[in-house]
Queue: 2 jobs
Job 1
Amino acid sequence: MADKSKKVAIITRHAVSNYGSVLQAYALQSAIKSLGFDCEIIDYIREDEDYKNIADTLVKRSAWNKNVLTRLIYKSIQAPEYIRMGRAFEKYRKELLCESGRRYASLKELKQDPPAADMYCTGSDQVWGAIGNDETDGAYFLDFAPKGKKKIAYAASFGKTDINDKNTNKIKKYLDAYDFLTVREKSAAQLIQNIGINNVRQVLDPTLLLDKNQWSKLIKEEIRDRYVLLYQLHSNPQMDSYAKSFAQKAGLKLIRLTPLFHRIFKSGKAVYLPDISGFLSYIKNAEYMITDSFHGTAFAINFNTQFIDILPGETKTRNQSILELTGLTNRVLNSYEDYSFINSKIDFTKANEIIAEKRVESINILKNMLEG
């Protein structure tokens, strides 16, 4: 039996200015509460991931990192955009998430004053890969949790298919300290098994723990229009051109969802920084959705929206994993000359059955981890 007095503290990438980041945190929080536990999201935001500092972080990895002048030009252009976007997502988090009373900026701060809880949970998304300038961040491995407290991971991800050899021993030590381990991708389970840990299971991304009816409760107004939706995270001129041509051939308008102001000038009618209701409504009501986003793909499947998936380079394993699970790998675009998806519609019957079955299984695994 769940004990409502027991509190779970989740650490995850909740504060990235990205719809998927916020919604996966909300979904896991909701699932844990539905199982009868108190729950909060640890408000951990690294200095280099704080939206006020993102331009400083990114310029170091860019071609603009040549000298003081070029860095200044980059930051003067980019900083206002990231601050505007960061403030919007900060508002969305306050509306949806039960965050800890204190904000933490480092593992050191977490160790000095860990949030009080009965158990600690590493949440989903790319928590175990490189973050900022670090190959790993011990905070996301619960290295701050007080001794003797239960440590679990739900649908954690490395965001890649290999581990740097020099980090293998450190990661193994971190993972050995968990009481229960679950991951989001098959590739993540394989990585963990390859370093000698076998008690790991694959579960659904948190956003799939809630069904389309539960997500629809966050929609204030349904979009009443016919359109092709473009939700694009990675810069890709070919994807832009393809979406424009696809919409023309389908006889529909193209709508681009974007939290980035500079992308409003690209193909399609831009919907800039929609709120959570708008984000979900545009996906739910699209005639077709073209996306390179893992969570875009997950929501399209959940809402039974016709979609085309463009795999995003080195992070494509995330998309591939959910497509393989649901038997929808044929929705991957392999040629920018292929418009056959216009007339090749998805029958979601089998995918819905698989997700429903895996949802029950994943919730039961989460329940057993919390109660075990």
Job 2
Amino acid sequence: MASLFDPLKAGALTLSNRVVMAPLTRARAGASRVPNDLMAEYYAQRASAGLIVSEATAVCPMGYGWRDAPAMYTDAQEEGWCKVTKAVHDKGGQIVLQLWHMGRVSHPDFLDGALPHAPSAIAADGEHKSIHKPYVVPHAMTVEEIAETVKAYADAAKRAVRAGFDGVEIHGANGYLIDQFLRDGSNLRSDDYGGSIEKRARFMLEVTGAVCDAIGADRTGIRLTAMNGYNSMNDSDLESVMVHAASALREVKLAYLHVREPASACVIMPKMKAAFRGVVIGNDGYDGKSAQAAIDSGICDAVAFGVKYIANPDLVERLRAGVPLNTPDSATFYKGTTQGYTDYPKYAGKAA
């Protein structure tokens, strides 16, 4: 039976252990959207993870929508990411770039006054978490704009490989653009990208196909969210949507499928695992014990940790030794300085 600390083969990736660093927006890139030396230090500190999934990174200007987040559509941004990948590789780690388009949960403040793009003209509930302004009714994308966006994902994937990333993860989760196309609560289209589950999944599959053509399926993963409510996302038959998506993605032969569903109520992920028939990474609310139990039960092959990785750069070592974890300071999650970013201490006591 596999341990959380055993190696894992996932496409072209060979993870040294099954502890994955989940994508974590930390807002340290500044207004330039260019990764920097501070970000390189942060990721290098966490290189003992079996795999690092970078923070979500905008694939094009229209996909951007979070203050001080990084992007990957200019040469300067590509060069900045080179610093990060080198720092991680110098420490013996592996890292993939998460490809991001925020869709309707961006805001005109990030888009030179333009409306965010989305499958349908339906606003998200509430206010933007980065700038605290109400979400706006987005622009329903034309077929031509959909094609341009698919190409933007592929172009960003090519840049990722040139920048030294070991692969990419397509962000299809958390209420962002791909997720918006998948769900009937945000997609009311009547063309080939809306209506049936199969049609709503078309955009996801076109993006995935374009990225795989660009860099190879064995270096491509995707993240999906098997839960309603987050970022005001809902679907009337979420299980059917997610199982269909996993089944359709099986044919692509991706490196892995990354599923966000709470560890305390993991119902859909096991069915997605059975449909996908490949490497699945679980995420949301796991600790060392529940992560090992999930691997033992076969519902996933590895587990991604988010908030725990913010405060514990040596999370693998702490979990292996069974020692206490640092407590994260939520006030510094997006603060933009070294505080709460690169200053968390490694464990100095004795193993349990």
